[in-house]
């Protein structure tokens, strides 16, 4: 499942690069990538702070 998801992500991320020839397209691609990275970062922080993620640093040694 991870390989299929990763392959689909790489495929979808590579499509706009094939059509970006002028500087305006590259600017839109860069801004879109920064927005996507910001959303994913915020989601990661929310998941970590929600307490539902059982990370090793929260577990007490047994």
From TrEMBL:
Q: Where is the protein found, in the record's own terms?
A: Membrane
Keyword annotations from UniProtKB, A to Z: Ion transport, Membrane, Signal, Transmembrane, Transmembrane helix, Transport
- Topological category with respect to the lipid bilayer: Single-pass membrane protein
Q: Which domain of life is it from?
A: Eukaryota
Query: Can you tell me where the transmembrane regions are?
Result: 30-50
* Residues spanning the signal sequence: 1-20
* Family statement drawn from the similarity comment of this UniProt entry: Belongs to the FXYD family.
For this entry, the protein name equals: FXYD domain-containing ion transport regulator
Q: What is the native source organism of this protein? A: Saguinus oedipus
Question: What is the name of the gene encoding this protein?
Answer: FXYD3
């Amino acid at each position: 499942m991870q390989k299929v998801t990763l392959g689909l992500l790489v495929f979808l991320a590579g499509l706009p690069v094939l059509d970006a020839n002028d500087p305006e397209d590259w600017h839109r691609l860069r801004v879109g990538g920064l927005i996507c990275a910001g959303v994913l970062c915020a989601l990661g922080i929310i998941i970590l702070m929600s307490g539902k993620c059982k990370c090793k640093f929260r577990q007490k040694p047994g």
